[in-house]
Amino acid sequence: MRAFLDMGGYAAFIWPSYLVTLGVLVLNIIWARRSLARALQAARRRSAGPGEGA
Amino acid sequence: MNLRDSGAVPVNHLEAEDLQLWRGDRHVLKGVAFVLGRGECLQVTGTNGAGKTTLLRTLCGLMVPEAGRVLCEGRDVRKDLPAFHSSLMYLGHEAPLKADLTARENLHYWIGVRRSVPGSILDAALARVGASAWCERLVRTLSAGQKRRVALAGLALMFAPLWLLDEPTTNLDTEGQQVVGALMAEQLARGGAIVIATHQQLPAPVRAARILELAA
Amino acid sequence: MSSARMPAAAGAAINTAASFGQATPAAPALSAARLALARDLTLAFRKRGQLIQPLAFFALVTMLFPLAVSPELARLRAMAPGVLWVAALLASLLALEFLFRDDAYDGTLEQYALSGQSLTWLLFAKTVAHWLLTGLPLALMAPLAALSLGVAAAAVPGIVLVMLVGTVALSLIGAIGAALTLGMKRSGALLALLTLPLSLPVLIYGARATELAIAGNSYLAPLELLAALAVLAVTLAPLAAAAAVRISLE
Amino acid sequence: MRWTWFHRLASPPYLYGLAARLTPWFAWPAALLILGGLYAGLVLAPPDYQQGEGFRIIYVHVPSAWMSLMVYVIMGVAAAVGLIWRMKVAHAVAASCAPIGASFTVAALVTGSLWGKPMWGTWWEWDPRLTSELILLFLYLGFMGLRAGFDDTQRADRAGALLAIVGLVNVPIIHYSVIWWNSLHQAPSVMRFGKPAMPPAMLTPLLVLLLGFTLFFAAVLLVRVRAEILQRERAARWIGETLRT
Q1: In what order do the strands lie in the sheet with B210-213?
Q2: Touch between chain C and chain D (3+ CB pairs, < 8 Å)?
Q3: Are residues B137 and B171 in the same domain?
Q4: Is residue B70 domain-shared with residue B167, that is, in the same domain?
Q5: ipTM (interface pTM)
């Protein structure tokens, strides 16, 4: 296990790389969901309010 | 469909069908529609921000409506914009004048891009709007009303079937307004059409065939 | 001037317009473009202060290097191609903001777009004027800067030639960025962000050709690549700029 | 007749519903492939005979770099479709692509730099690949910056689309000029991948991850596109109806 974590001496480079990439993936999920939630909220507000076009 | 080819003469010069336009979250044009025949004048009124300028810019094809279309002589103007543009003259509320050119130079470069105008006709147009005395002065030394008159000289030189005028009488004295009236009357008399956006009364002797009121 | 004749002439002018169409021949595209070019040059020479700004900037930047790095001519000579090209790139960027700005404010661009003439040609003419007023003087000034950086006089023709070709491409690429940022109030930083990455190939080939010219070698290969970029920019950039101006006018 | 699918995709309510239904079909396979691929890359793949364990950065660097480029191409194509056919949903796709692509570009740069340190001994090397990646990041930032400069979505769409197309034309030119520039200066190129000599045990996890990242992008894109469509269809009646159900 320790040998695996050590990665043949390259631990200081490999683990940060994987962390950064996973971080980017997770952030993408969060950002996308948040932008959809915001758009839905705004759309609800508009359709609840006095809609001029609808 | 193709009225010109079938030999039938379209009744209306300019036609707008259900124009819809949004700016950001603002619904500016809410289904604007009108017809305008040859030799007729349409007055567009409405409070500030009601979309008068937006309507004019949409009519001349600078802005693209999200729905609806503009027809000229029965054809959708988007089919051939350059041809439509060479048949119209748009005068915004700011005259396209450069402070560092003389009034005459401004007119020369402005009109010259559209059509070649001999110098004598240029001078005649300047005389017509009462600008002969100061047409060799730099525009930066002119008053707002004088600048407006230079723009009117441009109007006198644009023999376009359709005029789109945005507040043409702003800053003009009585004499200047008379010139606007005379120019517009001539345009109508030779069968041209005018769309004018103003909340003031139209300069005599022009009378609006139709009035379109835009709600804010 | 007999004022009595004037109204008559005006009446005649209006009468010729009685029948639209045939009476009003449109100006041919090329003469319209020539007029737009003449107008911009006239205007520029009326306000000479603005004309000198990019040149002064260029001279200033090239002067900074000896002060910041070292006055040793051997070191400066090694850096000269990079210094000249980065300074030229920044100087032409500085001038770009004014390329369409005034014409957008006073409605001239609107009139161009509604003239029924090809907007592409009119904007090309404006860009040519811009090059004549910035690119050309920069190329003519580059030898002075190069000599002050310890470059041999024999390299001067090469430096000027390379810069002449390169600045053509820079002006045209910049015109797209300037047209895209027209609608914005403060566009300086954004203009740089849009234009500089697209200008990198010009910088790479231009600096390399200059380096070869300074070393006294043949700089034909990078110059040819640079010329290819310039030709590509001449054919495509005005089209893109015209589309961008139409979007900005919306 | 053959184009009916295209016209249907262009209809915002149809695409909105389709995107909502398709998202899980991309998201779950993406999650499985990425987790499996990472496990295989970290544990199952044998160490490289030259770089030892250090080469394992390839499994995050290459997929990120691949995404950064692929997303830019998709963005440019969507922008062109939007500009030419005035298609709102294509603009929505282009606008959604930019932040995703930019984030993958950052990942590719950081992992590239982390890879470079043990291999070259420096955190940053002006390697043509990394340099191109850096320029790509600026292209993304420019696109997003230009869009942010307009307060009207329609104008932002059209101006951004034009820039994306100009960028797309320029990307190959920039890339080749950078390679040309680099070849003059003879920097050692350590990152040489995709060579056919790569053994299958090493290559398979990479391919799995490439597919996983692509599916992941599709899933995130679909979510973002829905948000962008809602923003563009302020007044449409279908939105109210969709929200109520």
Answers
A1: B88-91, B162-166, B193-197, B41-45, B210-213
A2: yes
A3: no
A4: yes
A5: 0.87
